Amino acid sequence: KYREAPDGQILHVGINEAGAMAAFTAAGTSYATHGEPLVPIYVFYSMFGFQRTGDAMWAAADQMARGFIIGATAGRTTLTGEGLQHADGHSHLLASTNPAMVSYDPAYGYEIAHIVQSGIERMYGSSPENVMYYLTVYNEPLVQPAEPEGVDVEGIVRGIHKVSTGGDHELRVQLLASGVGLPWVIEAQQLLADDWGIGADVWSVTSWTELRRDALAADEHNFLHPQDEQRVPFVTARLSEAEGPFVATSDHMHAVSDQIRQWVPGDYLTLGADD
Q1: Angle at which helices 17-28 and 50-62 cross, to 10°
Q2: For 62, which of 94, 134, 165, 216 is 20 to 30 Å away at the CA?
Q3: Residues 6+ positions from 26 with CB-CB distance below 8 Å
Q4: Burial code of 114-140, b = ≥16 C-beta within 10 A, e = fewer?
Q5: pLDDT tens-digit readout, 122-171
Q6: What pTM was estimated for this model as a whole?
Q7: Measured in whole angstroms, how far is the alpha carbon of residue 55 from the centre of its chain?
Q8: CA distance 185 to 188
Q9: Burial of 255 (0-12, 13-18, 19+ CB in 10 A)
């Protein structure tokens, strides 16, 4: 049952997105209004966030709210039984327009753990920032792997890390995916090797939007300060030594994974949830 507790509180507001966002904003701004920082974690149908209460999220940002916004049942395929009203293929594009929103589309639990830890440090650490974290999670069950030893934590937090290297084949391809799309490209990796003799490396893209923001910042710096050392976008640096073309997919529309096209060092194809 739901009850108040000194170490936290659960509010179950029902079908009341506007009221829930108001509660999130109140908790997310308590550090300023009451001198008592709280860590709100708002969980909702992904489609009913930026689609229905996006203006309230902008208002929360204007009030410098901090906290975690969890878009559950995300994507276009993981809740199809509820109809298109629940199918979210575009919330990350809407979130990308809000400069206070730090957006992620993780696939695995250990990725979420590092992202949340980074978010807590960024929002509540020694030099706190007035940002909110948006994470999309899904309704499709999948086996959660253990965190690999020596996992690329920087890559997880900044937007991309390699999760699997293909076998020793002459022909190669790079498979990029986020969220619930990752298990499918891992299956594709096996099919490519078994049926076509193609080695595929698999990359988990935890944030297409953060990769794009980093790349835009690098381009702006290089343009305004040509005399300084030129910055390389993080996604370009991570993929610079990868062999073969790049194929990207997610459970969202093409435009989500297309955000990084300009900085991928090679031929780049995007696939959406409807492909």
Answers
A1: 20
A2: 216
A3: none
A4: bbbebbeebbeeeeeebbbbbbbbbbe
A5: 999 999 999 999 999 998 888 899 999 999 999 999 999 999 999 889 99
A6: 0.93
A7: 21
A8: 5
A9: middle
